[in-house]
Design brief:
The protein has 307 residues and is of the alpha/beta class. The chain has 2 domains: 122 residues, Rossmann fold (3-Layer(aba) Sandwich), CATH 3.40.50.720; 165 residues, NAD(P)-binding Rossmann-like Domain (Rossmann fold). It is built from 12 helices and 12 strands. The longest helix has 21 residues. The two termini are 27 Å apart. It is elongated, with a radius of gyration of 20 Å. The strands form 2 sheets. The chain has a 7-stranded parallel beta sheet with strand order 8-7-6-9-10-11-12, with helices on both faces. A 5-stranded parallel beta sheet has the order 2-1-3-4-5, with helices on both faces. The structure holds 3-phosphoglyceric acid (3PG). The site of 3-phosphoglyceric acid (3PG) has 11 residues, from loops.
Length: 307
């Protein structure tokens, strides 16, 4: 009987775990749960005899893959798979997958919420501003970026986007103004919502040069990954441009120093909250469970990311 492990440092909502159990056990497999673990040794022990693993942002490094002697498939229940060591998976013949689109709306709603929170000076009594009529730049027009654009239109924002991997016509069909370069996007955006993945090309790619191109009073909203920010460059930009703001869904490494220096101009959620809704947990968790069952039973590799 195949054994499926759900290893989540930040657990899914109970309704999602119940749904995953139904799918896994309904397929005749066994389900094991490892939640809120604080010690990597617990993860290494839990993976020892499993055929499949479902994770969120949990780090599946080479030693975890090595310790999982029977592992055939690992599914990141979510979009970004920078937490999976793909080379290690490939070397051991393990299929790695993600569940694109399943938690996008939750992340998009958080991005909008953060914009309003920052516009109102983190709900301090100082008079804030409105997001209506402001220009919103979407950096990467994937599943989340597209939803942020659509929700923001309802608030009366003017939408701009840059994404070299999406056809201009497709963005224009959504009523989005397509710009020709990243630099142009930052230069027009009163709010800039980041949706790029963290990889070798994007890490530390957003820093001083781009931030100082932004209009007066601009805010960078980061619900993507902290690793894409050049924190030294951002610190310098926030020091020079006392009108700029930064809000992120997971604190920068230098968060304490940033808050110390810049107060309500900087905000970070205490733990990554973007995908933390019941709906997103159910969508991503159940998709992951179904993908595992379909892979083990039928060899279905849709959503494989280590091709
Ligand atoms: C994702 O890449 O899907 C999001 O960052 C959500 O991450 P989480 O599942 O750890 O909340």
């Amino acid at each position: 009987m195949a054994k499926v492990l759900v290893a989540t440092d930040k657990p899914f909502a109970k309704v999602a775990v119940d749904g995953i159990r139904k799918i896994v056990e309904g397929a005749g497999f066994e389900l094991a749960l490892l939640e809120k673990y604080t010690d990597k040794a617990d993860l290494l022990k839990a993976v020892a005899d499993v055929d499949a693993i479902i994770v969120r942002s949990d780090i599946i490094s080479a030693d975890v893959v090595e310790a999982a002697k029977n592992l055939k498939v690992v599914v990141r229940a979510g979009a970004g798979y920078d937490n999976l060591d793909l080379a290690a998976c490939t070397a051991k013949g393990v299929v790695a997958m993600n569940t694109p689109g399943q938690n996008s709306n939750a992340v998009a709603e958080l991005a909008l919420g953060m914009m309003i929170y920052m516009a109102r000076n983190q709900f301090t009594p100082v008079a804030g501003t409105e997001i209506k009529g402001k220009r919103l730049g979407i950096h990467a027009y994937g599943n989340v970026g597209k939803l942020v654009a659509s929700h923001a239109k309802g608030f009366g924002m003017e939408i701009y986007a840059f994404d070299p991997f999406v056809k201009k016509e497709d963005m224009e069909k959504d009523g989005v103004n397509v710009v020709a370069s990243v630099e142009e996007l930052y230069a027009v955006s009163d709010y800039l919502s980041l949706h790029i993945p963290a990889n070798d090309k994007t890490k530390k790619s957003i820093g001083y040069d781009l931030l100082t191109k932004m209009p007066k009073g601009a805010t960078l909203i980061n619900t993507a990954r902290k690793e894409v920010i050049d924190e030294e460059g951002m610190m310098k930009a926030l020091e020079e441009r006392t009108d700029l703001k930064y809000a992120s869904d997971i604190a920068a490494d230098t968060h304490a120093a940033l808050v110390d220096k810049f107060g309500v101009r900087v905000f970070a959620t205490p733990k990554k909250m973007g995908a933390q809704t019941s709906e997103a947990n159910v969508n991503a968790g159940l998709a992951a469970a179904n993908q595992i069952v379909n892979f083990i039973k039928n060899g279905d590799r849709t959503f494989q990311v280590n091709k």
